[in-house]
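ERR on first pass: missing label on line 2. Operator R.T. fixed the label and resubmitted. Corrected input:
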Amino acid sequence: MKDAIVITHLGLVHALGDDPQAVFDSLAAGRQGLTRGSDGTESAPVSQDLRVLLGNGKKQGFTRSSLLAGAACRRLWQAWAKDTGQPPAAAETGLVTGFTPDIYSDTILQVLSTREYHLMSPFFFLNLSANATASQVSILLGIQAFILTMSTGHTAGLEALETACRVLSTGRARQVAAGAVQEISARMVRGFSGPGAPPGSGTGILEGWRPGAVDLGEGSAWMFLLRADEARQQGLRPRARLCGFGMAYNPEAAGQGDPRACNQAIAAALADAGWKAGDVEAVFLAANGDPAQDQAEMESMKNVFGNQRPPMTALKGALGETWHAAGAMAAVLAILCLEHRLLLPTQRLPSSGAARELYLPMTARPLNARRAMVMALDQDRKAMACLLELPA
Amino acid sequence: MRDVWITGMGAVTPLGIGVAPYWQACLEGRSGIKPIQKFNTQGLAFVRGAEIEPLAADQWLDPEETGRLSRLAAAALSAARQALADARLLSEERRSRLPSLAVLLGTSNGGLNDGENYLRREPEETLGAGFRERQPYAFLTDMARALGLREAQGLNTNTCAAAGYAVSLAADLIRLERAEAVLCGAADLFAEVVQAGFANLRALAPSCIRPFDRGREGTMLGDAAAMFLLESADSARSRNARPWARLAGEGWSADAYHISAPRPRGEGLETAMRRALQAARLAPAQISCVVAHGTGTPSNDRAEARALQAVFGPDLPPVTAFKPRVGHSQGAAQAVDILSAALMLREGQIPPVSETIEMDPDCPLPVVVSEPKAGRLETCMVNAMGFGGNNLSLILQQAESGPA
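pass 2 clean. output:
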């Protein structure tokens, strides 16, 4: 990356806590965010009262995604105001959101099956818009430079970060809140684990509630991004620097555990950062228990790092697959791991299988690292890698 | 920063497959708005819209593709192949001379229309693999797979400004030297639940769209896919590609006001237009014409008119709008408008808005209403105002007249 882009503030809401440090502490203590529902599926729903997190129980019209995103972003704004004495300037602040609405909701099914068109009320209809969450957050916080929603599934969170970097380089905003949000519904949980899901051949890096199933989590993760010179000028302390991104797509891969997209994305990120593979000191895997995806990622780690593999962990065993939010959530937690010099444990690691070769930690482990790589995978077809480092 | 040119364009609209039939219909003032065929309209209050024709006869698609792909993916693929062919980059051999070809698209509904058909057929299949493969972004990967593309892909869903954001983000990739060429644009198909939602918002008109007319009643939904090959001017020159236009600059803004309504005086769009002019280093007087968002809804048109008056003062350039031709294709709407603007610059003609009969005194704009207006056009501004307060203004310029 030509411009030095830094992260100055972090926000995170998850079942394990409503700020980044609380979630980090829970994970470090080995706590589990996943719970079993009445139908036997497992997921990690946020149970906190989100309206309280937004303050004074306001914003009754917010969707669950907007509440999740708004709560995490509000913390960013509060932290900014604490550091600078005032909120970020509305006209110079942008918002990039990774998000996709649930287009297979029960309401839509009902409208289609009964033709009860009155159910598509203005409120419901407008909230079906993929940009509704960004819009509601912009209204809550007065964001006026721009709002942008990236709706690309598993890679959306990292895409939001990468897009924010480009926006800052072109000068369209002085600071950008970038992140992603994922809410879960019962239908979505069944969609990722129900009878039509891949049958699950072999083992992945993580174990789901049944082989091949992916346990969903929900939450929201956000970061304030600025150009390094701008952060200095505003007197803000960089928490981390974003060094490089890579994305690749493999049109031939289709659930075969093909590592090529992953390999290519990592190579592109390393080239973007001007790093060698040996410069990566910690890896935050995208592993979610999908056998093909996990196998592609495992194979890629071997291809890229050979026998000199850096410390790695996979957090979705405790967080659940937070889908659009996963990359952003992993980036926030990666920064905290580097800052605390602690590698968070991998939960739900299978007791046998190839994943054992990655030597993932079963309990929190000391980490002496400044540079990390965060992965995002959309099955084994599309991959994204993000490289970041602590300030010197 | 580097100069960015449009060197290829393709379209699938309710006026036909390809750029030429679309443009001819625009000059003749024909409309693609008809009674809706793609879903049963029984029980819906408004039953007209602008649909693309079945894609079985599309020469840009293999029969196998029209059978396998969703309609949205097929429309996007057809438009993308047209754009690549127009840029003389359709063959993989020719494309391989480019260092990379990223893809950045926009949409609003994503695969919702296809998803509805799927839900009607087999609702329980939404559980499991089918659920994951039928997400709103699936059309992007399906299109990229059919084209054999392996590079970065992105999809934004910035409602009615999504296409403009896709084009602007793509241009930024080239300006920042992160790409030499980017395939960009948008695709959107309106869906049954969207038709119902717009009706419940009281935003639909029964028969036609009449932007800025005193008696305008609302908008009408449409399908469209429009794609562009953006390229650095250096890359285009090196292979003697003929540019349609130069992307002179874009301005973004957010209203932070309301989830559907614009600020009443159009301040958000005004900011976007001023930012676009600043980015293009142009004065308002240097804009030759404006393609308005022009949805035909009372509040939107009024806000847009006020914003245009605030930026241009009494010397407004001629204004036209294309939603009366192809309906409001939401996420793809600004892609159709950018395509139209590029055609206007090359052909030196501003198509009329023949549906607008009596100008609203609240919207005193110089709308071209009866005949095409002919003459050399140097620049064209294209505006979009999306739900949620997304605004994007973009300026196209004759490629020869911009900085080298």
